[in-house]
């Protein structure tokens, strides 16, 4: 991270218009985009907050304050409440939908902002955010939250997804750890209940992605999709949820998710180098043979969690599976000398993306922080 973070604190911060850039071109310059996603702004606030807690110099905290100012001054709807989905580069409203996934990442960012700075305003923003979610996007009948609310108040966008709820679980855990407030843990418990009742497919040991309005599996192709990266991500989250609650009921589903992802979600044609696919079917058929970087980071986290909670304090030897996935990341994706990466590879390992999205840094920082915490060398 000694290369990644200083580079992104320099090139990835929009000093002219505020906030963070969305993505870089392959020549490591900001892409000519006139939009900024709220989720990307929130992720970068997390990145530099965590960097500060890990001992990064003053530039990390400067980036945090810069990003928070843009987010809170330009991205909150001061008339109707909630966070805009997108703003222009200068911060004018562009897409005024209020998206649950975006709000989950604002909650996550505010948890880490509070940890990094102790600023009570972070918790005020978290409370305003969850109040909007509960009031405008909560589903009291089926549970969880609707995908988004449009300007006319409609909340019927389909299909519904597990993904925003996974990140709400992540945010609620982070807020509980930042504050000690049991209410956030109660909210995390509700997300785990939704996972157990709706998202987890016990017949195949896999994670459903898409759903109808009443939380039935989506029909057709959407209902078949399984993303290995999300299996790894849920495994990591469920173990950390159990760490806080002692709830052993999550252990068997978590193990099933990891087993499914390792059996069906890893490319076997890479001669011992583990690379996770983007999507497979419930029967294990490869649906998307491409391989984004973020599922690789989640595989590392999952193997580290399995190791940590199976063995306690790390003895020697360190976990081989996590190390192998780290080797894949650094060998196939990340340019250590320049602080950038290939965001997606084709089945044959050829890079296929033309841009470097800033939002992937959230996955990288959390992965590398966990590896640094648990691996000795």
Structure description:
By secondary structure, the protein is mainly alpha-helical. It has helices spanning 4-11, 38-53, 58-74, 100-117, 120-137, 163-179, 182-199, 220-224, 228-245, 251-264, 293-311, 320-333, 360-374; strands at 23-25, 36-37, 86-87, 93-95, 98-99, 148-149, 160-161, 200-201, 206-207, 210-211, 225-226, 279-281, 286-288, 291-292, 334-335, 340-341, 344-345, 355-357. The strands form eight sheets. The chain has a three-stranded antiparallel β-sheet. A three-stranded antiparallel β-sheet has the order 11-12-13. Helix 2 (38-53) runs parallel beside helix 13, helix 4 runs antiparallel to helix 5 and helix 11 runs parallel beside helix 13. The longest helix is centred in the C-terminal third of the chain and has 19 residues, at 293-311. It is globular, with a radius of gyration of 20 Å.
């Amino acid at each position: 991270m000694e290369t990644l973070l200083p580079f992104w604190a320099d090139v990835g911060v929009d000093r002219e218009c505020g906030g963070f850039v969305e993505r870089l071109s392959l020549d490591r310059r900001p892409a000519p985009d006139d939009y900024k996603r709220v989720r990307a702004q929130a992720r970068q606030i997390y990145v530099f907050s965590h960097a500060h807690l890990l001992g990064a110099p003053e530039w990390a905290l400067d980036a945090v304050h810069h990003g928070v100012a843009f987010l809170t001054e330009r991205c909150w709807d001061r008339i109707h409440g909630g966070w805009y989905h997108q703003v222009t580069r200068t911060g004018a409203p562009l897409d005024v939908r209020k998206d649950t996934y975006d709000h989950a990442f604002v909650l996550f960012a505010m948890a880490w902002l509070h940890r990094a700075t102790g600023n009570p305003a972070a918790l005020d923003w978290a409370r305003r955010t969850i109040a909007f979610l509960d009031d405008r996007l909560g589903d009291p009948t089926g549970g969880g939250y609707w995908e988004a609310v449009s300007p006319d108040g409609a909340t019927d966008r389909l299909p519904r997804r597990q993904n925003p709820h996974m990140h709400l679980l992540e945010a609620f855990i982070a807020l509980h750890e930042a504050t000690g407030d049991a209410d956030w843990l109660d909210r995390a418990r509700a997300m785990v209940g939704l996972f157990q009742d709706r998202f987890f497919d016990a017949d195949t040991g896999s994670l459903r992605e898409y759903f109808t309005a009443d939380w039935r599996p989506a029909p057709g192709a959407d209902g078949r999709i399984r993303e290995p990266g999300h299996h790894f991500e849920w495994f990591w989250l469920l173990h950390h949820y159990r760490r806080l609650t002692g709830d052993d009921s999550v252990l068997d589903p978590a193990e099933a998710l990891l087993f499914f992802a390792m059996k069906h979600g890893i490319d076997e044609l890479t001669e011992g180098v583990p690379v996770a696919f983007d999507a497979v079917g419930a029967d294990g058929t490869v649906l998307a043979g491409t391989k984004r970087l973020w599922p690789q980071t989640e595989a590392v986290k999952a193997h580290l969690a399995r190791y940590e909670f199976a063995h306690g304090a790390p003895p020697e030897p360190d976990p081989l599976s996590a190390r192998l996935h780290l080797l894949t990341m650094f060998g196939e994706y990340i340019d250590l000398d320049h602080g950038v990466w290939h965001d997606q590879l084709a089945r044959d390992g050829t890079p296929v993306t033309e841009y470097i999205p800033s939002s992937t840094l959230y996955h990288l920082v959390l992965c590398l922080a966990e590896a640094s915490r648990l691996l000795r060398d």
